């Protein structure tokens, strides 16, 4: 393992006492069909893309890597995006069941909404595809949308994105990140896993660490922003 400082440098990993201190394992989802199709300057219009064949393989490999975490987590949290839920289902759920670890779904760390794939799907549709997860606490449209369309269910959000377009501001993203950190600090658990997304994590670390690779596991200490690569 290598330890990352906030300037992006790597140092030798250090064993850190965890009593009373938050230790977070951040995991980027496995490869999606959007990841496999997108090119710079081109959006393939794949909304809430599912895992690619390679992504399914990566998620199954995660099932082995998750058993090697230095500390057993007390809580696992996935975003409601399909690629994150599918990664959690294939790569983490069995581990969670064997260790009696609760699994939650939270939109707090959903992806920075810039492209088609950053858009979620309504809760009712996601629930049909992923009945293993409790989505009861989610709003029907749980991801960021412009205020003028978020609650107007006569508007097809995918068609609106294709024709009119919209993007979440970086200012709003940073507000979400602040709420994410606050939520973590308020939780009673000291060791948690979050399955999430590359742009969200990139901004979480103030753009000072490289983008996470698919299914990469990074250990993070919110109080100091120190991070340790568990897998590369």
Automatic annotation (TrEMBL):
<dbReference type="GO" id="GO:0005737">
    <property type="term" value="C:cytoplasm"/>
</dbReference>
<dbReference type="InterPro" id="IPR050275">
    <property type="entry name" value="PGM_Phosphatase"/>
</dbReference>
<protein>
    <recommendedName>
        <fullName>Phosphoglycerate mutase family protein</fullName>
    </recommendedName>
</protein>
<dbReference type="InterPro" id="IPR029033">
    <property type="entry name" value="His_PPase_superfam"/>
</dbReference>
<dbReference type="Pfam" id="PF00300">
    <property type="entry name" value="His_Phos_1"/>
</dbReference>
<dbReference type="GO" id="GO:0016791">
    <property type="term" value="F:phosphatase activity"/>
</dbReference>
<dbReference type="InterPro" id="IPR013078">
    <property type="entry name" value="His_Pase_superF_clade-1"/>
</dbReference>
């Amino acid at each position: 393992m290598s330890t990352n400082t906030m300037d992006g440098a790597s140092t030798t990993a250090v064993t850190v006492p965890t009593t009373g201190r938050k230790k977070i394992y951040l995991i980027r989802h496995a490869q999606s069909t959007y990841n496999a199709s997108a090119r710079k300057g081109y959006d393939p219009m794949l909304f809430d893309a599912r895992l690619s064949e390679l992504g399914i393989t990566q998620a199954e490999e995660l099932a082995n890597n998750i058993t090697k975490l230095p500390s057993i987590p007390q809580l696992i949290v996935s975003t409601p995006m399909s690629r994150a839920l599918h990664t959690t289902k294939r790569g983490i759920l069995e581990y969670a069941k064997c260790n009696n670890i609760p699994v939650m779904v939270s939109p707090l760390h959903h992806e920075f909404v810039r492209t088609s794939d950053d858009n979620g799907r309504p809760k009712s549709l996601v629930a049909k595809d992923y009945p293993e997860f409790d989505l009861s606490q989610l709003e029907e449209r749980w991801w960021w949308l412009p205020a003028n369309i978020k609650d107007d269910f006569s508007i097809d959000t995918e068609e609106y994105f294709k024709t009119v377009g919209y993007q979440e501001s970086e200012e709003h993203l940073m507000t979400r990140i602040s709420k994410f950190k606050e939520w973590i600090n308020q939780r009673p658990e000291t060791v948690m896993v979050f399955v999430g997304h590359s742009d969200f994590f990139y901004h979480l670390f103030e753009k000072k660490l490289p983008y996470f690779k698919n299914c990469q596991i990074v250990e993070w200490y919110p109080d100091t922003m120190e991070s340790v690569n568990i897998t590369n």
